[in-house]
Design goal:
Order of helices and strands: EEHHEEHHEHEEHHHEEEEEHHEEEHHEEE
Number of domains: 2
Radius of gyration: 28 Å
Largest sheet: 8 strands, mixed
Shape: elongated
Number of helices: 12
Low-confidence stretches: none
Number of strands: 18
Helix content: 25-40%
Mean pLDDT: 89
Strand content: 25-35%
Length: 419
């Protein structure tokens, strides 16, 4: 049985990048602040975490991660929801859950049946809907069929009953029941579905956002980072795990560019160089040590969990995200990011119920010319009696073979990055 994780946490993650480009801007250069300081967005580290979770724990859902459809096109937000959870949940007016729910309209996809219109719409409402459509709308031709669907002779029935009658049907279709017999709606499937959904919204009040929220919280990245859903419904989830931009705390920040050659020529080149292979450039950072601050407050989503009955952060989630924060950047290897690796993570876990607030560790950490990571300023804060009494444990992850650390907290538990 999993246990809910309720402790608050402060810390940081250090990413080493040598002759690499950890987080490029849209000109393919390492990102820089106006004063020339090299930095990386929080999204760069979150991407490595999501990528790690998806590869290391394939049974877990990672929602905010690009997936492709059969045509190799990235899925939209709504398409991703349907991929993971099926059709969008509708609000139902049915109060008695002891009996199977009945509907007036049924969508058949060749395999299963989905019920629409759990409540009967008043004829005046249907008439008003079709009247609101433009004169040239193709949907107007469906008015007669939907008047029958919502008329006095229409009957409610369960999806199982309808499915049993459609076993020999081969194509996607819409059906309703009149005088005890199934009646098919002919016409464009997309048009029929559009009208059905719009009329369904009039009856059900739209999507059941509580169920949608509960579904999204089954995804480990949503439980950790939250997310904004702006599709069929609008949802905003304040993530418990907040990560700051990563700032290069190494004494240097030298960016260089080099020419590269493609083995192929440019087919659009009209000049004398059209017989030559295509030339290009790539930019990299000579060396950088990016420090991302992190804070974890599981109570950020406690109200949403109570409202939706969704899943909260567990001890198992914390184990997985620790692995991702200490190994994800190293795992994600590409031509541009070869040389970008996890270097260190500091995890300061407070005692249950503690309301202590700590400053960001980013500006308190430095990396000198000998690549030594200095934690003296952080340690000075953590060892204050007014602070230390709130701390349950301090974990420090790094590889002693390749990384030097000075000023680490005396009571820190030293752990290997890859364990």
């Amino acid at each position: 049985m999993t246990t809910a994780f309720t402790n608050r946490v402060f810390g940081c993650v250090v990413i080493k990048s040598v002759n690499s480009n950890y987080n490029a801007d849209f000109t393919h250069q390492p990102r820089t602040l106006p004063d020339g300081t090299v930095y990386a967005t929080d999204k760069a580290l979150k991407y490595t975490v999501r990528n790690y979770l998806k590869k290391a724990y394939p049974d877990d859902k990672v929602f905010y991660f690009k997936t492709m459809d059969s045509d190799f096109k990235p899925r939209t937000l709504d398409e991703s929801y349907v991929l993971y959870f099926g059709d969008f949940p509708k609000k139902s007016k049915k109060k008695d859950n002891s009996e199977p729910e009945k509907f007036y309209l049924f969508k058949y996809d060749g395999d299963s049946v989905t019920g629409l219109l759990p409540g009967q719409i008043k004829p005046a409402t249907v008439k008003k809907y079709f009247k609101s459509l433009g004169e040239d709308s193709d949907l107007k031709q469906l008015a007669n069929d939907f008047n029958k669907v919502t008329g006095k002779k229409a009957e409610q029935q369960t999806t199982d009953f309808v499915l049993s009658k459609l076993m020999e049907e081969q194509e996607e279709s819409f059906w309703y029941i009149e005088n005890g017999k199934l009646q098919k709606i002919n016409g464009s499937f997309i048009d029929i579905e559009t009208v059905a959904n719009e009329l369904d919204n009039l009856v059900t009040g739209g999507l059941d956002r509580k169920i949608m929220l509960s579904n999204l919280l089954t995804c480990i990245d949503v439980r950790l980072f939250g997310g904004t859903y702006a599709g069929q419904a609008n949802l905003s989830i304040h993530g418990p795990l907040q990560i700051t931009h990563g700032v290069n705390r190494y004494v240097e920040g030298i960016i260089y560019s080099e020419q590269i050659m493609s083995p192929f020529r440019n087919p659009g080149e009209k000049s004398a160089d059209s017989t030559m292979s295509t030339l290009g450039t790539q930019s990299k950072l000579k060396e950088g040590h990016y420090v991302h601050g992190l804070s974890l407050n599981p109570h950020n989503i406690s109200d949403l969990i109570k409202l939706s009955g969704g899943q909260s952060i567990t001890d198992e989630d914390i184990t997985k995200v620790k692995n991702a924060l200490t190994q994800g950047a190293t795992l994600y290897d590409s031509a541009a990011k070869a040389g970008t690796e996890n270097e260190l993570m500091l995890w300061v876990q407070l005692k249950p119920g503690s309301m202590l607030v700590l400053p960001s560790f980013v500006e308190l950490i430095s990396v000198d010319a000998d690549r030594v990571i200095h934690l003296e300023k952080v340690t000075k804060i953590l060892e204050r009696p007014t602070v230390s009494k709130h701390i349950e444990k301090i974990e420090l992850y790094y590889d002693k073979t390749v990384t030097q650390v000075k000023g680490e907290p005396n009571n820190a538990i030293i752990l290997e990055l890859n364990q």
